[in-house]
Amino acid sequence: MEAIVTEFPGLIFIKPKIFGDRRGWFYEAWNKERYAEIGITYSFVQDNISYSSRGVLRGLHYQKPYTQGKLVSVLQGQVWDVVVDLRRSSPTFGKWCGFTLTGENKEQLFIPTGFAHGFCVLSETALFQYKCTDKYSPQSEHGIIWNDSTLNITWPLAAPIISDKDRLHPSFDEVGESDLFD
């Protein structure tokens, strides 16, 4: 596998080694020892899979105080994945970056705690997998509105399909200091 360190401290883009022939393909999606070698030493406690149709946008989500680091990948389809750094002490605080993830290339993104996360579906459908370092905690749910003018994320969709809950998230500037990370 190839681990690509980003300008965002702790955010790692991973290109797995895929072994394929006429029968199909095989790749290692998780190996505790190999991932520890690239700095991912967290214990994962919950796996989630979401299924979405073209045009669906999920996010921007994060949890606090029960924070979650995430190892995300696409099992089928194609998404544009976005993270926003919410760590005040980070040199990339308030900045975002995006990655195209597909079931074909099997690339992964490790998102440490302190980031908001979202994605939009570019293919007909997509199966999206999250390995999480802590369990889902409804009382810890937070979010930022997907089309925040301060962040100015360049989503590749003009009119995404968004849940009612995601439409109600505050703007980046409205997020309280206690809801950000150190």
Written account of the structure:
The chain is mainly β. Helix content is 5%, strand content 41%. The strands form three sheets. It has a six-stranded antiparallel β-sheet, with no helix packed on it. Strands 9-8-11-6-13 form a five-stranded antiparallel β-sheet, with no helix packed on it. It has a two-stranded antiparallel ribbon with strand order 3-4. The model has no long low-confidence stretch (mean pLDDT 97).
Mean pLDDT: 97
Biggest sheet strand order reads: 1-2-10-7-12-5
Largest sheet: 6 strands, antiparallel
For the termini, the CA-CA separation is 31 Å
Helix/strand/pairing class, anyone? Answer: mainly beta
H/E order of the elements? EEEEHEEEEEEEEEH
Radius of gyration: 16 Å
Note the beta-strand portion: 35-45%
Proportion of helical residues: under 10%
Number of E-state strands = 13
Shape: globular
Could you name the ranges where pLDDT drops below 50 across 5 or more consecutive residues? none
Number of helices: 2
What's the arrangement of secondary structure elements?
Elements: E1 2-5, E2 12-15, E3 18-21, E4 24-27, H1 32-37, E5 46-53, E6 57-63, E7 70-76, E8 78-85, E9 96-102, E10 108-111, E11 115-121, E12 125-132, E13 141-143, H2 164-167
Antiparallel strand pairs: 1-2, 2-10, 3-4, 5-12, 6-11, 6-13, 7-10, 7-12, 8-9, 8-11
